[in-house]
Amino acid sequence: MGKIIVLGAGMVGSAIAIDLVKNHAVTLTDINAERLQKIAIKCPSLRIQTLDVCDRAKLEVALEPFDLVICAVPGFLGFETLMKIINARKNVVDISFFPENALDLVSLAEKNGVTAIVDCGVAPGMDNIILGYYNEKLKLTHFECLVGGLPIIKKWPFNYKAPFSPVDVIEEYTRPARYVENSHVVIREALTDIEYIEFDTIGTLESFNSDGLRSILFTMPHIPNMKEKTLRYPGHVNYVRALKESGFFSTEKIIVDGQEISPLSVTSRILFDEWKLGENEEEITVMRVTMTGENKEGEIETIVYDLLDQYCKQTQTSSMSRTTGYTAAAVANILLDGLFTEQGLFPPELIGKHESCFNYILNYLKERNIHYKKTSTLKLK
What we know:
- By secondary structure, the protein is α/β, with parallel strands linked by helices.
- The protein is 34% helix and 29% strand.
- The protein has two domains: 3-122 and 320-370, NAD(P)-binding Rossmann-like Domain (Rossmann fold); 126-310, Dihydrodipicolinate Reductase, domain 2 (2-Layer Sandwich), CATH 3.30.360.
- The chain contains 13 helices and 18 strands.
C-alpha cells in the first residue's frame, strides 16, 4: 500500500482518488473546500485537505509524507505545479495537459532523481501507450488518432458538452494543429480538413484538425506520417467556426457601454452553461487509433484499436473521467509496484514500449470495464 496525494478534485482528479483508495492511502486536495466535502461524502475512505498549489511553501509541506503525487490541476497551473513537485523530489503522474512542452523538464527530473510521467489520460495518454508498444513491434509509417467526448443527448446547436472548462476547449479550437506528413511537420489551422467517419453503434461523426500529437512529435520523429483529429457530432464545426471567424474567441478587448471586455471571456461565460456537463449526465468517449507498418515477416500490417466507453451509472462516473483517470491510476500502480523504475520525465509512449507496462494498463482498464478492441489486417509488401 502506497501513500498518494492527488492535487485537484475536479471530475478526473476525484475519479482517480476514488479508484486508488481501494488499495492505497489517498489524500485528495483542492483549493475548493466545498468540493472536497461533497467527494468525502461520496467516498468516506478518502482523506481530504484544502490546498492552494500556487503557495510553494504549503505545497512542499503537503507533499512531504507521500510516496507519489498525482497532479490533476487545471492546465494553466500544470507546468508550474509539476516543476514544484519535481523540485520537491517526489515521483509524479500528471494529467494536467498543460500547453507547455513537458520535455523541457527532463533534465530537472533527472537531476532530482525522480520519475515523472506526463499526459497520462486517454488522448494524450492511451493512444501514446499503444503507439509506444507497436513502435517496438513494427517499422511504422503511419499513426492516426481520432478521439472525442460526446453527450448521449444532443442539444442544438452545438450537440456538445464539455467535462472541463470551455476556455480549454476553445483553446483547442484556436491553437494551430501540427501534423507530420512525409517526415515534415505541417501546421494547419484548427477546425479544418473535416472528414466524416463511421463508427459502430454511433453512426457518423466528423473529425477535424487539432493539435494533439504533443510529445510524439519529438519522441517518434522516425514515423513519417502522424496525425491527431478531434471527433464531434456532424455540424458542430460549422457553428464553432462561425463564432471563431466572427471574433467571439478574440482576446483583444473591445469597449461595450464604456467598459473594456474580452470577447473570449464573454463567449466562455455563455458557453459554460451551454456546454456544462451535468454531474450525472450520460456521455461517451470514442477513440480510434490506427497504425500501419512493416512487421518482422516483411508484411504490411495495419492495427486498429477502437474504444467506445460510456458513463458508469453504478459509480456515477463520467466516461471521460473513467478513461482519463483510470489510465493515470494504472500508471500510478506501475510506479508503486516497481514495474517501471527509470528516473527522469517520460511521456506515455516511453512507458508503453515496455510490454509488461502495456499489458498491465490494458488489464487494469479491462477490470474497470474499459475495453480497447483490436483488429489487424495484413497485406504483402
